[in-house]
Amino acid sequence: MKKLVITLFLIFLPIIMFSQTHVEGVVYEEGTNTPLLGANVYWLGTQVGVVTDFDGKFSIRYKESYKKLIVSYVGFTSDTLNVANPTKQLKATLSPKSNLEEVKLVARKKATSRSYIEAQNVINVSSDELLKAACCNLAESFETNPSIDVNFADAISGTRQIKMLGLTSPYILIAMENIPTVRGAAQAYGLTFTPGTWVESIQITKGAGSVVNGYESIAGQINAELQKPTKDDKFFVNLYGASSQRFEVNTHYNTKLSDRWSTGVYLHGNTHQEKHDVNEDNFLDMPLYHQINVMNRWQYTDTENGFVGFLNVRYLNDEKQTGELDFDPDTDKLTTNAWGSEIETERYDFSGKFGYVNPELPWRSAGLQFAISNHQQNSYFGLRTYNIEHNSVYSNFTYNSIIGDSRHKIKTGVSFTYDKYDELVETTSFERKDNSIGAFFEYNFDDLENLNFTAGMRVDNHNRLGVFVTPRIHAKYTPWDKSAFRASIGRGKRSANIFAENQNLFATSRNININPSAEGNIYGLDPEIAWNYGVSYLQGFNLFGKKADVTFDFYRTDFQNQVVVDWENLQEISFYNLENESFANSFQTEFNYNPFTGFNTRLAYKYYDIKTKYQTGEKIKPLTAQHRFFANASYETPIKNNSKWKFDVTYNWLGKQRFPSTQNSPIEFQLPNFSPNVNTLNAQVTKVFSPKFEIYIGGENITNVRQNNPILGADNPFGSNFDSTFVYGPIFGSLYYAGLRYRIK
Asked: Which helix (H) or strand (E) holds 329?
């Protein structure tokens, strides 16, 4: 019996001792049942502490002298527990600091904002900012954003091209919900295929982007988030009409089918059938066109089990006609009767994305994205034919988790891309199939206070480019309050689609030359490689008691094997890999100030130093202003009876731009070395009658600035000196518009 008592005593002694000397509990995020892994738990005034496990549980040694238990977690407000009964199971709930800060930002309803937290240099553009632009697609949505330059590509097509860091859109990864979209055959006109009202927000990332989204990003990334059927208006309509007799209509219809399924139908149509020749050169100042754009969007949401998904089906038909005033395609197509051009595009898209967040372990998530598209363009420019069909398949799988605690996040996955191109350039066919499979890994350290560091690397195996590595690093440091110092470095690689990306050059009399490299297998050219380096400093402060901030950005891009479009000889266009130095330096400073409630101002200055050592010597990049100044002011009146006014004014000044050399041309076709300065002013006034109804009026280029004689040799378009690409400013002059928006929430 004595032995039995001793044995039982020895068995239960550890349990008795543990129950007497340890305190147990669980740490949750406030308002949820989410346990916090890696939270610190320690006794006040001691070195005795533990860290919570995967289930948020902890067990800590106890003495009678220990009275207060401190629970802390990075990014959360600490909590103090008074321990009166050590045998009682404790429960601590922590509220996130970061969430509180995010709420404050949302409450200010800033149309455009920069993050103080993220490692990447990201500018967030809301739908409110997009509504300030005159109309009506992504190419026209950046007029009020100083980080993006918007210019006309030529004097024929009316197409606007965008630049970032002084580099054209092929060097920018343009995505739709993080799926690369404006690429390949869509590079020239793809931005006009997404209506602005379909877009919920835009994220502009300067410098090399994340490795997750691919290897082609060099200058930066533009990602457009589409409207969500569950958040968008049940019904929305936007009607637009301009003095040029351009008319557009956008409609959204969203409905909830069940607790988990919602769907939306989005329709867009535009037309312009009036001929204009303000500069009297016998060429249309803007093309005749019409477009039909339809999207059916499905959303699945199961928050209880952690699933969300989107499916999109899209169809586009876009037709343009331009050229001489009396051009008739029925009789003059591909003849010398009159110079004309038609661009007919038909596109089908099917895309989706699915995400899963573990309800019990929310730091673990996975996502799958895919996109399938068919893009067909049939076009001609005078006597030149250009047709392209591009079939594309894209998929990307991503897994997210943490290491140890939430400060250490990882993201990894694989991606696959397939592209089939079939091009006809005049009488020459170019066909190729490209495919690549890649894997990526990205690590992020974030203490939510001072340091945010992201390092990523991807490895891709491409059937034409071989195996290659593209690393990216971003870091943010907060030296003091309301500040963010950022630095980044990254490598990008891309194969140039020389014809699809430079279709404006077909509207010339230039001969097209390709100077192949020794081992090039894409049009006989090698892929482009570039390194991008950047530093940025953001500082917020109070000026006369009101919020203000200032930003300084500097980025440099160094190219290797850059595919140069050399048009320094008016008689030809030459494509070749550059063996010499090519670089782009970009500096921007921006100042934002809110002097009083409802009134916002934004000033920006940009300087570009972009030079290329052509075969004929080092030259400044043509038709790129070295100096740019931007100013924007907006004001919203206080809401009275659900009604208010909105006012917005944007001013742009562009310094002189270098013309490609025309010195070897006849005297009548020679241009000066540089263009004159350009000043433009846009304005818009909106009257909001209620949350359901508003009207707007505005003007573009109110100063009526117009480039004289934008087309060289317009009187003889089939001659050897015809060229429509020397565009440095507006072609049409002033344009005024009006419209209305009606919505049912």
From this structure: helix 329-332
pTM score? 0.85
Distance, CA of 410 to CA of 441 (rounded, Å): 7
User: Are 172 and 161 contacting, i.e. CB atoms less than 8 angstroms apart?
Assistant: no
pLDDT of residue 33: 67
Question: 2 φ, ψ to 5°?
Answer: -60, -40
Beta bridge partners of 113: 124
Domain residue spans of the chain = 2-95, 222-744
Q: Determine whether 291 is exposed, middle or buried from the number of CB atoms within 10 Å of its CB (0-12, 13-18, 19+).
A: buried
**CATH classification number, 2-95, choose in 2.60.40.1120, 3.40.120.10, 3.40.50.300, 3.50.50.60:** 2.60.40.1120
How distant, in Å, are the alpha carbons of 55, 57, 365 from that of 35?
6, 8, 16
d(CA 487, CA 626): 24
CA distance to 75, 402, 480, 537, per residue, from 450 (Å): 11, 19, 8, 14
Chain Cα centroid distance, residue 10? 67
What is the rounded CA–CA span in Å between residue 474 and residue 469? Answer: 17
Give the Cα separation of 403 and 165 in Å (integer): 35
Fold agreement (2-95, 222-744): no
Question: Edge-to-edge strand order for the sheet containing 90-94?
Answer: 57-61, 22-29, 90-94
CB 649 within 8 A of CB 635: no
- How far is it, in rounded angstroms, from Cα 683 to Cα 702? 8
Angle at 98 between CA 93 and CA 104, to 5 degrees: 115
Query: Whose structure tokens read 């147990």?
Result: 24
Q: Residue holding tokens 């990008």?
A: 492
Provide the β-strand partners of residue 640. Answer: 643
Cα–Cα distance between 56 and 38 in angstroms, integer? Answer: 8
Secondary structure (3-state) at 435:
strand
Which tokens sit at 451? Answer: 């340091």
Backbone angles phi, psi at 170, to 5 degrees: -60, -20
Tell me the pairing of strands 644-654 and 678-688. Answer: antiparallel
* 82: nearest Cα among 23, 31, 33, 34: 23
**360: how many CB neighbours lie within 10 A of its CB?**
11
Report d(CA 451, CA 479) in Å as an integer.
9
Q: Which of 99, 103, 23, 35 is nearest to 68 (CA)?
A: 23
Q: Are strands 160-164 and 149-152 parallel, antiparallel or unpaired?
A: antiparallel
pLDDT averaged per 10 residues, the chain (length 745): 41 39 81 73 74 76 82 77 79 66 41 85 89 81 90 88 93 95 94 94 92 93 95 96 95 96 97 93 95 98 92 98 97 97 98 92 91 98 98 97 88 98 97 97 87 96 96 94 94 96 94 92 95 97 93 97 91 92 96 95 97 89 96 96 96 96 89 95 96 96 92 95 94 93 95
CB-based contact 239:269 (threshold 8 Å): no
Distances (CA, A) of 511 to 32, 567, 616, 660: 67, 10, 18, 16
Cα 120 to the center of its chain, rounded Å? 13
**In angstroms, rounded to a whole number, what is the distance separating the alpha carbons of residues 522 and 517?**
10
Q: Is 330 left (phi over 0), alpha (psi -120 to 50) or beta?
A: alpha
Look at domain 222-744 and name its CATH class: mainly beta
Tokens representing 23?
């305190």
